[in-house]
Amino acid sequence: MGAIMGADVRIVAPRSLWPSEAVQSLARERASSSGARITITDDAEAGVKGAQFVHTDIWVSMGEPAEVWAERVALLTPYRVDAALMARTGRDDARFMHCLPAYHDQRTTVGRRVAEEFGLLDGVEVSGEVFESEASIVFEQAQNRMHTIKAVLVATLAGE
């Protein structure tokens, strides 16, 4: 969507999690006509420099076996969103986004288990400090998602 709308889209992740070459090619094609900028990098510091929004997701999706945690923690810890990473944007107006649920503390069973097993005491994919900061717009994002879904339903089901 960002490539179609002319946005500055940055994917910061280990190479093993990058989009397929077919998806990258399609994004570049769309970006060439919209003026979008597509960046895919495994360098977290370079990837967030100048970014207005930093968005992350949970590292293990619902339904995936618990055994994948060790692999994901090892792979993704360098990309964990904390205050230092947010500061690397170089922007006072940088905002943090997450589609939720987030393991930002030890108040859930999974959050507590991952903290104890892997030493991520201040959150997994995002630190509690960032999640609860003024920069965090995760709940506004969730509310907007609800209204967006309703609009898509109306647009697709209402007919002409």
The number of domains: 2
CATH fold annotation of the largest domain: Rossmann fold
**Biggest beta sheet summary:** 2 strands, parallel
CATH architecture field of the largest domain: 3-Layer(aba) Sandwich
Calculate the terminal CA-CA distance, rounded to whole Å: 24 Å
What is the total tally of β strands? 4
Helix and strand content put the structural class at alpha/beta
The percent range for helix content is 40-55%
CATH class of the largest domain: Alpha Beta
Anisotropy-based shape: globular
The helix/strand order is HEHEHEHHEHHH
Mean pLDDT across all amino acids: 96
Strand arrangement, largest sheet?
1-2
**Cα radius of gyration in angstroms:** 17 Å
- At the fourth level of CATH, the homologous superfamily of the largest domain is Aspartate/ornithine carbamoyltransferase
The unreliable regions are none
Number of DSSP helical runs: 8
Strand content: 5-15%
Pfam family, one: OTCace
Keywords: Transferase
Domain Aspartate/ornithine carbamoyltransferase Asp/Orn-binding: 2-155
GO molecular function: amino acid binding; ornithine carbamoyltransferase activity
